[in-house]
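Recap from last week: sequence in, structure out.
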Amino acid sequence: MKVTPTALPGVLVVEPRVFGDDRGFFFESWNARALGQAGVDAAFVQDNHSRSRRGVLRGLHYQIEHAQGKLVRVVIGEAFDVVVDLRRSSPTFGQNLGISLSADNRKMLWVPPGFAHGFLAVSDSVDFLYKTTDYWHAQHERTLLWNDPALGIDWPLAGEPVLAAKDAAGTPLAQAELYP
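Predicted structure tokens:
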């Protein structure tokens, strides 16, 4: 696996080594030893799978208690994946990172606890998989406003996104509950 640090401390781009031939391909989507050597010490407790149609924007979600680390990837289609640093003590607090994840590029993103996370489906259909280091706790889930001008996220939108009610009613960064 090739693991590349990003401008946001702790956030990593993970590119598996793909073995392919005329039959198809094979790759390891998780290897504790390889990612451990890159600083990811994660014990996953839950796998999630979502399907979205083009234009669906999910997020920006986080849990203020029971913060989750996430290893995210796309297995069908393409998504524009975004993380926002919500750690007040971080030198990159409030900054974001956007990256294309697709079935074709097979890139994954490690999102450590302390970040809000979301994605936009940019292909007709997107199957999005992610492993989490803690369980979902509805009472601790928070949503950061996806289009907060203070974040300046450059979503690749062609019109208005399709949003869940909770995502449309997200909280701006200035009023959000944050991590230390």
